[in-house]
Amino acid sequence: MALLNFRKKPTDGQANAASPELQAFLKGYSIEIMPRTAGKVEDFRDLLPEGTRVYIAHIEGTPIEDMVATAKRVKEEGFDVMPHFPARIIKDKATLADWIAQYQGEADVKQGLILAGGVAQPVGEFDSSMQLLETGLFDQAGFTHLNVAGHPEPNLDIDPKGGRANTYAALDWKQEFSKRTDAEMALATQFCFEAEPVIAWANELAERGMNLPIHIGIAGPAKLQTMIKFAIACGVGPSLKVLQKRAKDVSKLLLPHEPNDVLNDLALHKAANPDFNITQVHFFPLGGIKTNANWAIEHGGDNTAHVNATKG
Which keywords does this Swiss-Prot/TrEMBL entry list (predicted)? Predict the structure, then answer.
C-alpha cells in the first residue's frame, strides 16, 4: 500500500492561531515516543506530517525486539526513525553491534541518539555516549545522523559538585568527534520551561566555539501536576520554578500547561537573530502523543521543510 501524506491539515483558523515566527520555529520539529505509547496510536500519519523525525526512547527493561518492531512500524508509516542508544544499558560492543544490525535489517535505521542513559549503575562496559561513539560501529554501519545529549541547565548527574566543567569537557570531545565522522551531528536537549536561560546557554556554547546545531527539548502539553512530576524525575533545573510558581494555585494543578510562552520567546529571538544556534524543536509528549501532535498542528507546526531543515 502506498504511503499517504500528512492527512490531518489545520484549518485556516488553526493556522492563523500562531505567529509567523512560531510557525517558522516549529518547522521540522521532532517528537519522542516509546513502544508502549506508540501502541496507543492507530496511525502516526493521522497526527504527524510526513518526514517527521521520531525518536524512540529506550527505557531500561524494554526488550530490543520491542524497540525494533516500533522502529519498523514508524518507518513503514513514512517517518525518519532515531532510536536511543543508552550506553549504560548496553552490555558490550557485541550487544551494540547486534542492536545496530537488528535496527538496520528490520527498519533501515541510519540515525541514532547516543547518550549515557539515566541508569545509575551501568550493566556492562559502557557508561558514556563517548564510549559508544568510539567503537566506530555507527560509522561502519553508515549512520547519517548521530545526535548527542545537551543540557541547558546544570546537571548534577554529570557535575555532582555543581557547575558545568564535566558537561563542557564532554561537549568539547563531541565537537571534535564531529570533525572525524561522516555523520551529521546535533545536540538534542533535556526539556526546560524558560527561554532566557536557554538563550544564554546557547550563546555561551557559540562563544566557546561549539557549532553543533541545537534541537531544543520542549515538554508538550500536559496537566501541570504531570509536568511537575516528570520535571523532577528528569532532573530539570532552575526553570522548574516556572511550574512551581503556577502550582501555588492548587486549582491549576489539574489544568493543562502548554509550552506557548517558552516557544514564543525562543521563536521571537530566532527571528531577530537568524544565526542563533537553536535550529529545531524536539517535543517530549508528556501529556500524550495525540495531545502534543494536535497542539503542534494548531500552532502552525508543519514539517514540509524537514528535509531542508538545518542539518543534524
Answer: Oxidoreductase
Q: CA angle at residue 247 from 246 to 249, to 5 degrees?
A: 85
> What is the extent of the structural domain holding 41?
12-302
| Nearest residue to 148 via CA among 165, 128, 166, 164 | 128
For residue 278, the cross-strand partners are 214
Where residue 157 sits, what CATH number does that domain have? 3.20.20.220
Vertex 158, ends 154 and 162: CA angle to 5°? 50
- Amino acid, res. 95: T
The domain total for the chain is 1
Residue 268 lies in a domain: yes
Assigned domain for 307 exists = no
Taking Cα atoms as reference points, which of 205, 179, 182, 173 lies closest to residue 278? Answer: 205
Predicted confidence band at 12 (pLDDT cuts at 50, 70, 90)?
very low
Q: What is the band of 232 on the pLDDT scale with cuts at 50, 70, 90?
A: low
Cα separation, 166 vs 169, in Å, equals 5
Query: Is pLDDT at 17 greater than 90 in this prediction?
Result: no
In a domain, 69, yes or no: yes
Whether 113 is covered by a domain: the verdict is yes
Indicate the pLDDT class of residue 117, thresholds 50, 70 and 90.
Answer: confident
Residue range 71-103, pLDDT digits in tens: 999 999 999 999 999 999 999 999 999 999 999
Mean pLDDT computed over 174-197: 94
